[in-house]
Amino acid sequence: MKKLVFNDSIEPSLVSQAAGILKRNGILIHPTENLYGFGAQIYDISSIHKIMELKQRKLNTKGFVVLVSDYIQLERLVAKTNKTEKDLMQRFWPGPLTLVLRAKKEFWKNPSCYRRKIAVRMVGNDITRAILKEANLPMISTSINISGERSMNDPKLIEKKFRNQVAGIIIDNINSFGEKPSTIVKVTGKKVFVLRKGVINKPNSLVI
């Protein structure tokens, strides 16, 4: 396992090494806005299945959150978005708001997709966003835990437990972390429905 530590700045050589792990279909433990997660590029089904094994998660129970670095990567994943969805993106991205959107047909059978929908976020963590930009790949992301149990968020404990099961780990000593996940919403017409409360903890703040 390659350990990549970001202390004072987003070091380009470290970003390049992390991006290389994703390009080579490796599992990368990475920071998000508040939590660490397992990640794999969306096109590598075998790595996604391995993450499911690590989490002891059953197949086809739900999709995965997919992280993107920019709108170009988003356009590869989703079908047409409406005005309300676009307004939410402009207000909260990059940041801890995950939107459930209509997936393009090519992703309907991908483990990231559930009932032809895909949960997408332009990740707010600047290190991970830089890595996705360098790799030019969207990445599935899921909390580090056994399904149904509390998430692990201490990088030292994560490294100790999973060092032999993943290709790389990012240690983020630049940003601060909390314990809440991203807020997940879906849009129907002009109405915004909160599916999971998280960092954005006031649903009324999401109303356009």
What's a concise summary of this model?
The protein has 208 residues and is of the alpha/beta class.
Question: What do these coordinates show?
Answer:
By secondary structure, this protein is α/β, with parallel strands linked by helices. The chain has one domain: DHBP synthase, CATH 3.90.870.10. The chain is 28% helix and 26% strand. The protein is built from six helices and eleven strands. It has helices at 12-23, 45-55, 71-77, 83-92, 126-135, 155-162, and strands at residues 2-6, 28-31, 36-41, 65-68, 97-102, 113-114, 117-122, 139-143, 168-172, 183-188, 191-196. Strands 1, 2, 3, 4, 5, 6, 7, 8, 9, 10 and 11 form an eleven-stranded mixed β-sheet that branches. Strand 2 and strand 3 form a beta hairpin. The N and C termini lie far apart (44 Å). The mean pLDDT is 93.
Which helices and strands, and how do they pair?
Layout: E1 2-6, H1 12-23, E2 28-31, E3 36-41, H2 45-55, E4 65-68, H3 71-77, H4 83-92, E5 97-102, E6 113-114, E7 117-122, H5 126-135, E8 139-143, H6 155-162, E9 168-172, E10 183-188, E11 191-196
Parallel strand pairs: 1-9, 2-9, 4-7, 5-10
Antiparallel strand pairs: 2-3, 3-8, 4-8, 5-7, 6-7, 10-11
- Radius of gyration equals 16 Å
> How large is the share of residues in beta strands?
25-35%
Determine the fraction of residues in helical runs and give it as a percent range: 25-40%
Shape: globular
Unreliably modeled segments: none
